[in-house]
Amino acid sequence: MGAFRSVSVATLGFPRIGPRRELKTALETYWSGASELTTLLGTAAGLRESTWLCQRDLGADIVPSGDFSFYDHVLDTSVMVGAVPARYDWNGGAVDHATYFAMARGAPGVTAGEMTKWFDTNYHYLVPEFTPDQYFTLAGTKALDEYQEAKRLGIDTRPVLLGPVTFLLLGKMSHGGGDPLALLPRLLPVYAEILSRFAAMGVSWVQMDEPALVLDLSDAARAAFAEAYTYLTQAVPAVQLMLTTYFGALADNLATALALPVHGLHVDLVRAPEQLAQVLEGARPDLVLSLGVIDGRNVWRADLSKLLDHLEPVSLARREIVLAPSCSLLHVPVDLERETALDPDVASWLAFAVQKVTELKVLAVALTDGRDAVRGALEASDRAAASRQVHEKIHDQTVRARVAGMNQTQARRSSSFETRRVQQHESLNLPPFPTTTIGSFPQTPEVRRARAGHARGTLSDAGYTEFLREETARTVRWQEEAGLDVLVHGEFERNDMVQYFGEQLSGFAFTKYGWVQSYGSRCVRPPIIFGDVSRPVPMTVEWWQYAQSLTKRPMKGMLTGPVTILNWSFVRDDQPRSETCFQIAFAIRDEVLDLEKAGAAMIQIDEAALREGLPLRRAGWGRYLQWAVEAFRIASSGVADVTQIHTHMCYSEFNDIIAAIGAMDADVISIETARSKMELLDAFAGYAYPAEIGPGVYDIHSPRTPAVGEMVTLLEAARTRLKDDQIWVNPDCGLKTRKWDEVEPAIANMVAAARALRG
Ligand code: GLN
Ligand code: ZN
Predict the structure, then answer these.
(1) What whole-number distance in Å separates Cα of residue 63 and Cα of residue 70?
(2) Is the pTM value of this prediction over 0.90?
(3) Distance (Å, whole) CA 357 – CA 60
(4) Structural domain of residue 95, as residue ranges?
(5) Final residue in a domain of this structure, among 390, 425, 459
(6) For the complex shown, is ipTM > 0.95?
(7) Could you count the other beta carbons within 10 Å of the beta carbon of residue 448?
(8) For residue 662, what is the enclosing H or E element?
(9) What's the CA gap between 327 and 213, in Å, rounded?
(10) 159 pLDDT above the threshold of 80
């Protein structure tokens, strides 16, 4: 030792929505016309200020700016570089708020941009749109303005930019296609201009987010990184760049990253701890390494002593290191302190954004001053880690034994689909082209009000149940009148398709304020799976029984599948995700069998999020799909041949996973197809998918009533790809977000379309 060493703490981004979702409220009030722009701007400035001060006061040496966003940071980047599609009639000057929000949400006469998932998170970004003759210009100074805003508050921040290569790779080319990377030479001067303006303001470091470096990249994309960073470091030598990668290992892109002439490299050591050795071996001595050691994607408290065992040798070997979360803290809730209603044991195992910054500070102090300087904090972390290993709330031997004893018989129906189908058709006796819906019916203001009243205690248990029974009964009657063949109970008792089950399963915890941004002002509060999962008592059987008692037509049992429950939760990090998924699968299996025992002839197990769980790298797909399919089969395969298993997936990209869907061995699958004009059924036809399919015949995301003829045309298109006796008729997805006066004519037309085909 002896030589001067530096260990600093950085955050790469902080939740922007506010500890009380202040930004959500301010945005929605502004959008509704009930407040002025200045009010929104004031709230936003207040949030930025408190966020900066909070991070500084927690001990962060490097605090980001520019990570705030009114909607989405990718959209901010599009605006910054003037990538504003022609339909917004932008005049070429500074992009105003009206244009920005039109791009985000649409406006009268103009559609919004397309939204898609940010890597493998549940955050959604607006896909940049380029044209082959796209030019770029500095059209938004938000990044520059926010740096100065912080500086006026006395905080010298490290601005964050989404790097040019990832930005282009996330975008799409309209009008005739082409490769967005071809636009790089035109984009780089704009980035250089921003960097030189930063330099003029005295900025020393800029965080350049390039998470695309953890993806499978073409040689052209790798070359683009070299081109971009050679250009930028030469154009603006005064600003040092922290090339920031996250969400996985650099792996085959590591050599590319290490060869870039940047001053710092951030690596994700939570998702990919194994890459540390290679990074250390390959990094130039003067490269500042930023080590993402605290999980920015999950809510668990870190095991600080264990981390220090790994970090101490590194800090001795390198002159300068930065400790950081693995990625922006955008993906975790703000502050655990507010969760006063949480089980104290569970709370002792958790860390939200605020707590994570403190953890980093403890690590940094231990590395510079020795572990004794933070003895108390380390002991508390040790205690939490030790308690998680043995605590009875986490470890349930019965559950573990059940998963360990899992066998192939449990994951297989007793007969092949061909045999099952004969029995099912005989017992169900449905008409050709049977009609059904995906499960939910409108969650009207009255339904929401009743649920809120019940949660507050102003509506009694009995009063709430009575309300739900009436709503269910009305919906069952209405479905009969509408002429649907297979009915649903409507899901009025469910707040959310995962939370409803999580609240009834052991091993799950729920927060009060644990909101995480999903898109724009939309936030979700994912359940926390902290322990072994089991199902103490039936969850849906009573509602199913009640609904079935009201009709002679078949009533579908309605469940959420294990993979979807897993993918929409914060999942424990002390065992493989697959293990947790199998535990959930057995809990759902118990429910499936109880529904069957109660008399359900059809049970639908929704796997809306199965595709979302695909790993970022193709090499990981096979393994994921294997256990995901296995989990679905554990959940669904306990039933008799005559019991019909349905599943539902509300998306339309099936080409990559069609074999896995086949392997799920459901009897009926309903999918989203209306917008793709049934073309995606080619995947099913090409694969010779044997089972029955309900290709959605109308887009439930739109309030428009589709005409009978339109749906007949779609069904005719389906008939060219599938056999008639494979086809079901249903909407794309559940109807909970629609109004009854939209649902009623749409379903009436859908039934008429099915009848026209039968005719
Ligand atoms: N059964 C659910 C519903 O209809 C399915 C929702 C979904 O797939 N997202 O609401
Ligand atoms: Zn759906």
Answers:
(1) 19
(2) yes
(3) 7
(4) 6-390
(5) 390
(6) yes
(7) 11
(8) helix 658-664
(9) 13
(10) yes
